[in-house]
Amino acid sequence: MPQGRGIDRSSYEPAYVQLVNILRGAIASGQYQAGDQLPTESELCSAYDVSPMTVRRAIGMLLDQGAVSTTRGRGTFVQPLRLATATFDLSEFHDILAEPGVTARIVEARVLPAGPRAAANLGVADGTHVVSIRRILQRGDKPLIYHRESLVYDPTRPTIESELDVTALRDMFEGGVGSGPKRGELILHASVLTDEEAGRLGLDPGSAAWVLEHIFYGYDEKPISWGCFICRGDLFSFRASVGAPAPEGEANAGARRNRR
Amino acid sequence: MPQGRGIDRSSYEPAYVQLVNILRGAIASGQYQAGDQLPTESELCSAYDVSPMTVRRAIGMLLDQGAVSTTRGRGTFVQPLRLATATFDLSEFHDILAEPGVTARIVEARVLPAGPRAAANLGVADGTHVVSIRRILQRGDKPLIYHRESLVYDPTRPTIESELDVTALRDMFEGGVGSGPKRGELILHASVLTDEEAGRLGLDPGSAAWVLEHIFYGYDEKPISWGCFICRGDLFSFRASVGAPAPEGEANAGARRNRR
DNA sequence: TAGTGGTCTAGACCACTTA
DNA sequence: AAGTGGTCTAGACCACTAG
Fold first, then answer.
1. How many CA atoms lie within 13 A of B139 on its CB side?
2. Which residues of chain B neighbour A94 with C-beta distances below 8 Å?
3. Can you tell me whether residue B210 is helix, strand or coil?
4. B209-228, pLDDT tens digit by residue?
5. Nucleotide nearest to A69 (CA to C1')
6. Which residues pair with B129 in a beta bridge?
7. SS3 content of chain A, % helix, strand, coil (to 5)
8. What does the pLDDT look like over B146-183, one tens digit per residue?
9. For residue B210, which of B244, B236, B241 has the smallest C-alpha distance?
10. Which of A131, B96, B147, B258 could lock A151 by a disulfide, CB 3.0 to 4.6 Å apart?
11. How far apart are CA A167 and CA A104, in angstroms?
């Protein structure tokens, strides 16, 4: 049983968060190692004088973090380090868009017949007219991201003008894409800049780049838009950690919920 | 209030899962749209005849999925689509390693003085001897991933031999890295193959590639290993979705075949 | 002040594993 | 048969938001 700490009932920190930190600390320090069994729920209940639901919630959080696994009838066991649990997010992109000096410059916006790839992805017949938008995200004069997008052309939905400024992109990350799309799929590719892309971004053709491809669907499950963000490989990378999170002594847990 | 469904107490599916599906369906169908307030917890309790904890758990899941946000004193509200909530995982790597015909071929394994980057990342003095391992992951004869790794040389820990076969890599994803490391950090870069890397992978120099860089730390918070997986950009991509997850009945059309 | 979600209690019954 | 985690109940008090 972890030593030296108990639950501080007067703390602003909920009991279940304290318990998570106690257990995670015991794992991080090697007191419980991969494969070891944690104390049973009832043991934890009596050891820390909390109710079963509180222990359950703490263990549930460790489960979500991949730190332990549970088997009904056997117990709770410390999980070994697994790369497969690592996840990457788009916070770097989001941070870029949130910066004050970042603007979007439209380099093309017109209605034209869809190419074969756009038609396939948008679920329309080859040659159907779609709205094509190309824009550069830049900080000052420095291009960061080149965005190409094709939207199904729907004259009854005049949202197009509102799609054109920076806030449209910012909203895509932060606040929602109009009220239209209900669901999106993203694919991240490694790529190398073509001549056109390199020209837009002011780099040499053949430079490393990310491509973040996206498709958005409406409530009817039909595609609304398809496009991709082409990002300088030298400016963006993705980070993740596995195992015991952040060695910083922060009491950062619990902050996962309730963003916004 | 969502219509037409109730909680089936005789189902193998827990009540809270059923409630999540009911609410998510109501959001996906547009019955509740971004910004709308969901029924309060007590309303849901009486509407579906379940206890507060069950409703709470269902809403907690929607919160984790980013589908709703909650504010104490105000209520529960449907979240708009936000790209920033998308996460990518390494399941493709994991799947590759799990395939039966995939093997690891050691192309180098020796003790040599650390270069400046390895020394810095491993936290040892420049020129300290480290174990350098380079291997190719291949399916049959086809190279998929080139892995370079440097391990701090510790004669007291003779785990080195066991690090050399396929299972060592598989375990890194699935089962854990020996019993040594406790924590790891990962960085994903977009890159372009150097001559040496291209030679190892049987591709042309300048091809697109992923580089997954990793550092593992032991219980003493000292680095144990540093290295990177260099992966063919044409074979790997990362997928994620935002908003209501893809419907069961496979309506995702062309999103699958697409590879830029 | 009324209503909301956030936390927590002290149990219960069940399915499952192990011996 | 004993012990484990998985689900669920029917409340409680609190902090916060709103009118």
1. 10
2. 83-84
3. strand
4. 999 999 988 888 889 889 99
5. D5
6. B113
7. 25, 30, 40
8. 999 998 887 665 555 555 555 566 666 654 444 567 78
9. B236
10. A131
11. 9
